[in-house]
């Protein structure tokens, strides 16, 4: 073989080797590309499965409400639902098998338990719920079950007969309650100076009023009507001041909503089912309320008519009242700081 032929063969071999190398590289790149392409759908599928997976909430849920009684139930659609087991049955569909109900004497105490994590959710007056949120409490409002909470101002026998008569007098209030907002707003509207407020729970306030140790007290409807029947003068009530009417709010902790993102929907559907049931049994419902508070079914029908229980999460009128209460609490520096109501309400 001539030198020229040898060089030509070497060139051919180098070219062939280069082609083989290039082909191998192309194959490797293609393989890597196919591998990446295959892995992407797999990852996407896993993410979709993860995000679409059925959330399993804790098997135990803790609910707080205002008012103690021997049956350990609140009133309203919520109480009826728990009493009849309607809500418990709905919760079982989601793996919640143990519902613990906890009673509190007032809203601030319940808010404290919710903030500390001892409760997952609860129903209370709008004022304590708003005050808690103003301190940074990680809660969300999920239902406004009633929008007609009337505060009453009851005087001692032989004591003040009008709002103006409260000048220089002492009034027992439940600090942080919707009745606190009512009397504070009333005194401001009527420009009555030198009114002293002292915090007392209802039983203590009623006892102090009977002994003449306070000049007046705020009270809620059914207990106030009983006092009026006993001869205590009714000085005023919030029905005469529509902007001072309170509402009832159900709030849930943000931590619990992370564990059970659909809880608001589940709760409101269960509550609505309970409401529909009690509407078919009005006499039984008022008898149930009578067992809770010790007053006659007739009196319960008068102060807590079924018609006032809301069948939707929030109403325009209810939200207006809620916004007005928040602004008042902020303006009067009763709330620690302002916050966006729309960021608190979960619709």
Automatic annotation (TrEMBL):
| Highest taxon in the source lineage | Bacteria
Q: Which SUPFAM superfamilies match?
A: Periplasmic binding protein-like II
Transmembrane portions of the chain: 12-31
Which intervals hold domain Solute-binding protein family 3/N-terminal?
A: 72-284
UniProt keywords (A-Z) are:
Membrane, Transmembrane, Transmembrane helix
What InterPro entries has UniProt attached to this entry? Answer: Solute-binding_3/MltF_N, SsuA/THI5
- Is Membrane among this UniProt entry's keywords? yes
Tell me the protein family, please: Belongs to the bacterial solute-binding protein SsuA/TauA family.
Stated name of the protein: Nitrate ABC transporter substrate-binding protein
Supply the source organism for this entry: Paenibacillus marchantiophytorum
Gene, per the UniProt record: ssuA
